[in-house]
Amino acid sequence: YLNSTGTAQTFRLTDVKVSGYQKSGYRVVYIKGAADVIATDCQIVNNATVTGSGAILHLANTGTTQLTDCMVSGNHANTKPSAGGSTIMLQKSQGTTFTDCTITDNTSGASSSGIFISSQNGPVTLENCLISGNQVETTNASAGGLYVNSGITVLVKDTVIKNNQYVETNA
Fold first, then answer.
1. pLDDT tens digits, residue range 125-155?
2. What is the mean pLDDT of residues 21-31?
3. Would you give the end-to-end CA distance of the chain in angstroms?
4. Which of 18, 63, 117, 134 sits CB 3.0–4.6 Å from 36 for a disulfide?
5. What pLDDT, on a 0 to 100 scale, did the predictor assign at position 53?
6. Under a CB-based contact definition with an 8 Å cutoff, are residues 140 and 111 in contact?
7. Could you tell me which residues are beta bridge partners of residue 13?
């Protein structure tokens, strides 16, 4: 959990791997209030939020966010259907860019198992990315691969979004 209070700071993450982490509650990686977030060559793989609702990677109230050559794969946001969860959640950022990123084979109990964009103050760009094999299992899901609330600009270039699923359950 990285929280910038007072003077906003830039968070730089390079060659970071978060793997095999199980979090009771919500959010495995939570970055809030940063001036900017720059993540390069990062891996967030095989993690889980096991109770409550939550995201594996949650970016909130940040300036601009750049994720380059990052992999988010094999994660599970919440083991309890209908309780919530997204693999990547974006909230109130000034703009977010994913370049050469892979978001694959994640599962969720609700919302989206890939990227959930709830609110943004700037555009979201997906360039040369792969969003595939993500699955959400619940009685009321938003999307399996990519969910965008209305009024948000998303630019997609040379990106593949395929084989994502929403599986309705009787929970």
1. 999 999 999 988 776 666 778 888 888 899 9
2. 78
3. 31
4. 63
5. 56
6. no
7. 39
pLDDT above 90: residue 9: no
Q: Which residue has the tokens 């700071």?
A: 9
In the DSSP assignment, the letter for residue 33 is S
What size, in residues, is the chain? 171
Written as one letter, the residue type at 113 is: S
Backbone angles phi, psi at 76, to 5 degrees: -130, 115
Cα separation, 90 vs 122, in Å, equals 11
The residue behind tokens 């997609």 is 156
Structure tokens at 60: 């909130």
Burial of 99 (0-12, 13-18, 19+ CB in 10 A): middle
Question: And the tokens for 99?
Answer: 């370049």
Q: What is the distance between the alpha carbons of residues 93 and 97, in angstroms, rounded to a whole number?
A: 11
Q: Report which residue type is found at 4.
A: S
**For tokens 């964009």, what's the residue?**
117
Q: Are 108 and 145 in contact, with CB atoms under 8 Å apart?
A: no
Burial class (CB in 10 A: 0-12, 13-18, 19+), 43: middle
Tokens representing 25?
A: 């509650």
For residues 53 and 25, give the distance between their C-alpha atoms in angstroms, rounded to a whole number. Answer: 7
Model confidence at 81: pLDDT above 60: no
